[in-house]
Amino acid sequence: MLPAELAAEFAALGLPGYRARQVFRWLGRGVTGFDEMTDLPRALRETLDGAYDIPSLKMLRRQTSALDGTEKFLWELPDGESVETVLMRYKHGNSVCISSQVGCRMGCAFCASTIGGKIRDLTASEMLDEVLRTGIAAGAEISNIVLMGIGEPLDNFDNVMRFLTLVNDPEGANIGMRHISLSTCGLVEAIDKLAGLHLQLTLSVSLHAPDDETRSLLMPVNAAYGVDALYDACERYFRVTGRRISFEYAMVRGVNDTPRHARLLAQRLRGTGSHVNLIRLNYVPERGLEPSDEDTVRAFAKALGDAGVTATVRRRLGSDIDAACGQLRRGRMRKT
Ligand code: SAH
User: Fold this and answer.
1) Distance CA 303, CA 278 (A)
2) Which of 124, 168, 146, 128 is nearest to 32 (CA)?
3) Domain boundaries 3-51, CATH class
4) Which of the following is catalytic: 71, 84, 130, 248?
5) CA 249 to ligand 1 center in whole angstroms
6) Alpha-carbon separation of residue 302 from 223, 266, 278, 284 (angstroms)
7) How many CA within 13 A on the CB side of residue 157?
8) Which of 63, 84, 130, 188 lies in disulfide reach of 233, CB 3.0 to 4.6 Å?
9) How far is the CA of 301 from the centre of ligand 1 (A)?
10) Is 84 in the pocket of ligand 1 (CB under 6 A)?
11) Pocket test for ligand 1, best of 111, 222, 234, 247 (most atoms within 8 A of CB)
12) Nearest C-alpha to atom 13 of ligand 1 is from which residue?
């Protein structure tokens, strides 16, 4: 519940507004039992305990990278489904990558999360719990959130916005919008809707190809919104919010990694101030697509740079623990 909803709920019980705020604060710290809310009178704790549940995610698996300390969690949801969260430790703070749906219906050709389709949306509180449980389990203070795990966040628009409100609340988890990134495969109407909310978060768009022909090979969503429509939406987003978009580009051997692709991409993005994040494709056995080799990635980045487009190659964390999208949940699905 949002603070105002909790206040209304408490008012209906004849309880003062400050009690609702106390409970909201405890929930924002990840407390899962009313008995732990020590600034509430014992009788009230018992009443609340009798009337409400505080559902929370159950840890199924935890893996820690021996290489870089990246941690990956597989959580069980109350209905038995599962999702993954990754904790990445950087010098500037700890970042969690959360899932927004159980599965995904976008069908990208390289992605493990979309195999088996979308089962359901995550609720706002399940997403919040991913952040809270991860911080508590790892004993880590969370300063950044990326919505880049399983699912398409803009395909679960209302719940994701609700989650952002909760996690951003100063009396809750208090994570600033500027410390939150949201990644989308490019749902044009939803990008416009998001722009209208004027949030200070960072929007990343999974582009993966500069032209319709190549993008359609990799991303079925391109049939609904072609590259031109997507670029236009990105431009509108920048105009409305003043926030530059960053583009993700997973390098797939022989598909989108040629000098011609670099040229086309540079033509599109030159002068827009957009940043390109080159990602080494994580090999997903079911998908059969291969990552580009290191030299090709470097040459591609250099070609973009020479053409005036800033590009960086994303650091790879947790490669020894299957820390990429959907790989852990997929492993569990294979076994069961
Ligand atoms: N649905 C959203 C967010 C989740 S995917 C989106 O499409 O942006 C997060 C990022 O990981 C996206 O850029 C996605 O294209 C990328 N990705 C998915 N599978 C990958 C793989 N096997 N290797 C590298 N990147 C991958």
Assistant:
1) 12
2) 128
3) mainly alpha
4) 84
5) 9
6) 30, 11, 11, 27
7) 13
8) 188
9) 19
10) no
11) 111
12) 206
What proportions of the chain, in percent to the nearest 5, are helix, strand and coil?
A: 40, 20, 40
Residue 26 CA to residue 23 CA, distance in Å, equals 5
In the CATH hierarchy, which fold is given to the domain comprising 58-335? TIM Barrel (3.20.20)
State the closest ligand 1 atom to the C-alpha of 152, by its place in the atom list counted from 1: 1
Q: Which residue has the tokens 């431009």?
A: 235
Is the pTM of the predicted complex or chain greater than 0.85? yes
The reply to whether 84 belongs to the active site is yes
Name, in order, each residue with C-beta under 8 angstroms of 281's C-beta and a sequence gap of 6 or more.
110, 250, 251, 252, 253, 289, 290, 291, 292
249-303: pLDDT as tens digits:
999 999 999 999 999 999 999 988 899 999 999 988 888 899 999 999 999 999 9
H/E run at residue 60: strand 58-64
Question: What ranges do the domains of the chain cover?
Answer: 3-51, 58-335
Is the CB of 111 within 6 Å of ligand 1?
Answer: yes
Q: Which of 108, 111, 234, 325 is catalytic?
A: 325
